[in-house]
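Quick one: structure tokens for this chain, please?
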Amino acid sequence: MRILISQKTPSNLNAYKALEEKYGASLEFHPFFLIEPLSAKEFRRQRINLPDYTAIVFSSRHAIDAYFKLCEEMRFKVPETMKYFCTTELVALYLQKHVVYRKRKIFFGDGTPQSVAALIGPKHKGEKFLVTTSAESCNPPVADLFAKAGLDVTVSVMVKSVTQDLSGIKPEDYGAMVLYNPFDLKSLRACFPQFDLSGVALISYGRGIAAALKQEGLTPAVEGPTPEIQSAAKAIDVFLSSK
């Protein structure tokens, strides 16, 4: 069976090669879309003045890169007093690419909006927060929680999703597809509007894509993450074992 995975080829293929050997399957990687930073011109349309903010909220590494790229383009030197609130430790650690981690005020949650909001407490209530997001998700849940808590919060789009050219792919050649993001589905629909997705097994890895599929009346063959399925490779394993 050929399985199409809507991601760039990872640097470590060991888990996927093990699946190919175990099941005799062919796993192929091809990103359905790419995340790109906004240009300074695009960002200025939001009429947001970066120096006004004393704290920033990141939920992805892409947003971190985009923020510091914009700061450079707009000649804004990020002050050492800036406070960084991240959704996970993994995202927080990525800040090391741009700042001296141990010298900055960096906080991280457990991946839920509630955990990030809980980090504020009385100590940080006086900050002016900038919540970064993508063009496709312009109202992140954490921003609502901040607003309900009476915090000074502004949502700023930092990145955008760009559909990739999928013309070299024949979707009918695959027995299954692994989708991660609602934009994967959007790209698939845009490139192959006549293709019947009900004829292919869809493996979803991410809450957003699972919900998007169900909204279209499509039932994922396997859903993750779950306590038992902690990686996309495991989701593929579960799917192939059922066959």
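DSSP finds nine helices and eleven strands in the chain.
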